[in-house]
Design the sequence.
């Protein structure tokens, strides 16, 4: 009997050519009637945090403050219309990584998305790719509204590796038989945790590390052009309200199986 194999995929910069959380934030703010300067100001604030050395985990937390008091059903609906608009525009998906994902699916291997993005944004992509397992950053929702806080540590760095260990345990797989795909140096913990790490070119530091270790390196792809802000407003108006499925905005795998912060002894 052949061993059970999982293929873990980072999303932003790996499966996609741009950072989905920022693409969606721009779309969301425009759909809410904000001018482009609002997004640019908020984006610059986060870039400034990165520039002075603030860890990715902290900037990820700061990002979700943008959704404080947002209606969860509206965020979910707009995330779907955003993704549909991106598909129409084209260029959001990285063909080399998507081809690799489909290869795993064709061989009967389970694909797991492991991302610092959040479920509302990830599920349309997952459904498009035929993926049912997502391990993501979980924003807190109370009484149907985002609080601007997170339920757990962001799905970044060592937390991704923790998620891979727990997912492998749930699926009855050994990490030595598994694959992981990533594009940023922060993906190194999950890449080193599996038997077959694969790097998507983009971060020169990670590519150099991969070459020294003789890991496979897939080509990256240029970022897709931004959606016109008029498209954001029109597509959000044209979309009829959707009934939220039982898995939205927090699908069962995200809610029940996501690991607790890596500082817990049981996850080390």
Sequence:
């Amino acid at each position: 009997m052949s061993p059970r194999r999982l293929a873990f995929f980072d999303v932003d910069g790996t499966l996609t050519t741009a950072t989905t959380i920022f693409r969606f934030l721009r779309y969301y703010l425009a759909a809410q009637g904000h001018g482009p300067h609002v997004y640019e100001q908020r984006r610059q604030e986060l870039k400034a945090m990165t520039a002075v050395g603030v860890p990715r985990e902290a900037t990820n937390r700061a990002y979700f403050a943008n959704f404080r008091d947002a209606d969860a059903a509206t965020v979910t609906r707009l995330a779907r219309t955003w993704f549909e608009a991106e598909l129409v525009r084209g260029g959001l998906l990285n063909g080399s990584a998507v081809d690799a994902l489909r290869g795993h699916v064709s061989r009967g291997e389970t694909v797991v998305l492991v991302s610092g993005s959040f479920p509302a944004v990830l599920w349309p992509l997952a459904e498009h790719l035929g993926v049912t397992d997502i391990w993501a950053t979980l924003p807190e929702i109370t009484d149907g509204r985002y609080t601007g806080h997170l339920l757990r540590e962001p799905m970044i760095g060592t937390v991704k590796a923790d998620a891979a260990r727990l997912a492998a345990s749930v699926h009855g797989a050994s990490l030595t038989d598994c694959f992981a795909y990533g594009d940023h140096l922060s993906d190194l913990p999950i890449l080193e945790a599996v038997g077959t790490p694969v790097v998507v070119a983009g971060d020169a530091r990670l590519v150099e590390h991969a070459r020294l270790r003789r890991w496979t390196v897939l080509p990256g792809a240029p970022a897709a052009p931004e959606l016109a802000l008029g498209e954001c407003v029109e597509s959000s108006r044209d979309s009829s309200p959707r009934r939220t499925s039982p898995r939205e905005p927090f699908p069962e795998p995200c809610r029940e199986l996501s690991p607790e912060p890596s500082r817990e002894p049981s996850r080390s």
In short: Strands lie at 6-9, 110-115, 133-136, 139-142, 145-150, 179-182, 196-200, 216-218. The first strand starts at residue 6 and ends at 9. The chain is about 45% helix and 15% strand. Residues 247 and 253 are 9 Å apart (CA to CA).
